[in-house]
Amino acid sequence: GAHPLPLDRAWTAIQKSLRESKRRTSWTRTNEPYEDATFRFLESVLNDASFVADLDQVVASLVDPGRINSLAQVALRLLSPGVPDTYQGCELWDSSLVDPDNRRAVDYGKRAAALSAIDGVKVAEVWSEHRDEGWPKLALLRACLQLRRRHLDAFGHDSTYVPLTVNGEDAHRVIAFERGRRVVAVVPRLPRRGLPDSAVVTLPEGNWTNILTGDRHSGEASFAKLSGAFPLAVLELELDPVV
């Protein structure tokens, strides 16, 4: 989950697991010979070029599905009922292990610079051009927070939360719902199998704009069409102009 991982970071997490399991060692009764032997084993594994090469191949096939899962979780966390937790320091891809690894210092300057760089850029473009930097997660987070601010009533305690009808062979791999008759989220499941492009979502009445791509939709539309150049869709109802 955190590969490539330096020895010092890997060991602190494993040492914590060993001690808290209390099978061979613990915080109060440390078995130093056992811990030393485990450390040497870990060191030998991470210095095994053949093993690391095999691991590289496995991890490479999981990177994009993992990123899509991360984006899906961001959208669900921010658009589902409840008060969303948005942990400072987790705005970009984060492959930290448990503490103390996840207690490392956060580079807020890096995040502030990224936020400025993507200002005014469609989230889908960020996914295409800055995927490795983790900017798509930051861009999606900001877009969803701005959406919540535009439609406060849609996320209140008495707002609607309604599942949408999804049909097609890949329907079971799509989560789609409407909030407050103003917002729609369409999120993929199990992206290791590919995106559920053939699934067809029935949108609520009205014209909808995907805030991540700028594309407009109404009626029924496939997941591929709704998401466009991004692996999920967040739609906003187009309101009639006041005259």
Describe the secondary structure blueprint for this structure.
Elements lengths: L6 H15 L10 H15 L2 H12 L2 H17 L28 H10 L5 H7 L5 H16 L10 E3 L2 E2 L6 E6 L3 E6 L11 E3 L5 E3 L5 E2 L2 E3 H5 L5 E5 L6
Antiparallel strand pairs: 1-3, 2-5, 3-4, 4-9, 5-8, 6-7, 6-9
Report on this structure.
It contains 8 helices and 9 strands. It is an alpha+beta fold and 243 residues long. The longest helix has 17 residues, at 63-79.
List keywords for this structure.
6-stranded antiparallel β-sheet, alpha+beta, 14% strand, 243 residues, 3-stranded antiparallel β-sheet
What is the first-to-last residue Cα distance? 54 Å
Q: Outline the biggest β-sheet.
A: 6 strands, antiparallel
* Continuous helix count: 8
Q: How much helix, percentage-wise, in residues?
A: 25-40%
Strand order of the largest sheet: 1-3-4-9-6-7
Overall mean pLDDT stands at 95
Shape: elongated
Spell out the helices and strands N to C. HHHHHHHEEEEEEEEHE
Strand content: 5-15%
Gyration radius from CA atoms, angstroms = 22 Å
* Helix-strand category: alpha+beta
